[in-house]
Specification:
Shape: globular
Strand order of the largest sheet: 1-2-4-3-5-11-6
Strand content: 15-25%
Helix content: 25-40%
Largest sheet: 7 strands, mixed
Radius of gyration: 23 Å
Number of strands: 11
Structural class: alpha/beta
Order of helices and strands: HHEEEHEHEEEHEEHEHHHHEHHH
């Protein structure tokens, strides 16, 4: 397709620089507030491209913000660069082959996500300078999306108070405007405090914190029959009381992850989970304390911005994959189940196909979304300012996120094509918002209309702090 949008040229100008950035971040996968090398790479690129830089944004050591332009509306473009644990994998190989057994890997494509977002921001920066238009573009380099709720802390700290609109994207199996259907969630650590004793000689003197933790899980299992269909509760033992079965465990900690479709529904679910914890403590004559580890809101949509982004997708057409891309994607599909592949189609309302290794189509704006949903801290940004996101194909159809197969495709030519495509979509959407005051006004009105019925209440309690990781020596 002929390039009809000049801002696409600015993306193409810097493509190789940002492919390099994506690959460098891929090579140093870091998780949950430990992204020191990754943020350093993003900061270096911001400096090289001439942005004004704010380090340690919202007092988060691995967050960075870069701004360009003057006066006028502020358009935020959101980036991420955190990885996932236990997903190390040799890139370019369609066989499970960890680079380092048990090490981290970019199993959700965030090496691509942050790089494309910064590429888009750079294109908008150059277009603003070239056109002389008064506006600002701001890149948010955000850590710890995978469980750390960094954007929620950033919203709470006021980093989006002067932003007019926000744009983001996520690597995917398909290409579309992302529908606002994520789940709000809260990760809460419940610690039970009991009394130790000899488990054989004097068990009657002990009060088991581990018993309390297990009873809490049983109580939540019974609650599952009586909660909304979209709600979810998961758990992990953070501390099971030690490895000595002949000692009554005096302390045990459970992390409960509570998910719900909306913030009000989440607050109700969390209150019920607290009652179950208190009941487990009463039954075992233990004490329970709790601490919120992280919490995020559900996404809310913005119809005017979604329509604008959809039109930019349609101008671009599908991601331009070639036969080499499709050949590697077919190899990846050989490692997947038929159900994996079918689920990609059925989750967006399409009939499954077995002959399509990569997405060669665009979904309509109002495609039928089916299946379960995850959570994202972009949700809190969407409550703070009008927000829109794209999903862009960067991987074989059927690839489940958070798997080694995502990592295997993270430095592929197809991934880099999808990343560049995403940058063009975001940059062009930002251009539309800046050039068309009526569009931006409509986006703000749509946002305010939603908030008038359901005001935003930050899901983090006032005393909640991010689970920061010290800089390595």
């Amino acid at each position: 397709m002929k390039n009809t949008a000049p801002i696409w040229d600015h993306v193409d100008t810097y493509r190789e620089d940002f492919v390099g950035l994506a690959n460098r971040v891929f090579d140093t996968p870091e998780t949950l507030y430990s992204e020191y090398d990754s943020v350093a790479e993003h900061r270096k690129m911001l400096e090289e491209k001439g942005f004004r830089i704010t380090d340690e944004a919202a007092a988060l050591p691995t967050a960075v913000v870069g701004e360009a332009g003057t006066e006028g509306p502020v358009i935020a473009i959101l980036g991420e660069f955190d990885a996932l644990p236990m997903l190390s994998q040799q890139p370019g190989l369609a066989k499970h082959t960890p680079l380092i057994e048990g090490a981290n890997g970019h199993g959700c494509g965030h090496n691509l996500l942050g790089s494309a977002a910064l590429l888009a921001a750079t294109a908008v920066k150059d277009w603003l300078a070239e056109s002389g238009i008064k506006a600002r573009v701001r890149y948010y380099g955000c850590p710890a999306e995978e469980g750390g709720a960094a954007k929620t802390f950033m919203v709470r700290a006021g980093l989006f108070d002067d932003v007019d609109a926000a744009i983001s994207w996520h690597p995917s199996n398909v290409t579309c405007v992302n529908q606002a259907n994520s789940l709000a969630n809260a990760r809460i650590d419940f610690t039970f405090h009991g009394t130790a004793s000899h488990a054989a000689a004097s068990p009657e003197l002990g009060r088991s914190a581990l018993d309390a933790a297990e009873l809490m899980n049983i109580g939540i299992n019974y609650m599952r029959e009586h909660m909304p269909d979209s709600a979810r509760v998961h758990y992990a033992y953070i501390d099971a009381g030690g490895a000595a079965p002949n000692v009554v465990q005096a302390k045990a900690t459970l992390r409960q992850l509570v998910r719900a479709a909306t913030l009000p529904e989440l607050r109700d679910m969390v209150a019920r989970v607290h009652k179950i914890a208190e009941g487990a403590a009463l039954m075992t004559e233990t004490q329970v304390t709790h601490k919120v580890f992280s919490s995020v809101s559900n996404l809310i949509g913005n119809r005017p911005m979604e329509e604008a982004m959809q039109s930019e997708l349609e101008k671009l057409g599908p991601v331009p994959f070639d036969e080499t891309d499709r050949a590697f994607a077919s190899e990846i599909q050989e490692t997947l189940s038929e159900k994996d592949i079918a689920t990609t189609f059925t989750s967006v309302g399409l009939k499954p196909r077995k002959d399509l290794p990569l997405c060669d189509f665009l979904l309509p704006l109002d495609f039928k979304s089916e299946g379960g949903n995850g959570s994202t801290d972009v949700g809190d940004v969407s409550w703070a300012v009008p927000t829109v996101q794209a999903r862009v194909a960067t991987m074989a159809i059927g690839t489940p996120l958070h798997t080694w197969q995502v990592v295997a495709q993270g430095k592929s030519a197809a991934a880099h094509k999808g990343m560049t495509y995403a940058a063009k979509v975001m940059a062009a959407t930002a251009q539309r918002l800046i050039e068309d005051p009526a569009l931006l006004a409509a986006a703000k009105a749509d946002h305010q209309d939603y908030l008038s019925d359901t005001p935003y209440i930050c899901p983090l309690p006032a005393d909640a702090e991010p689970a920061l990781v010290p800089r390595p020596e």
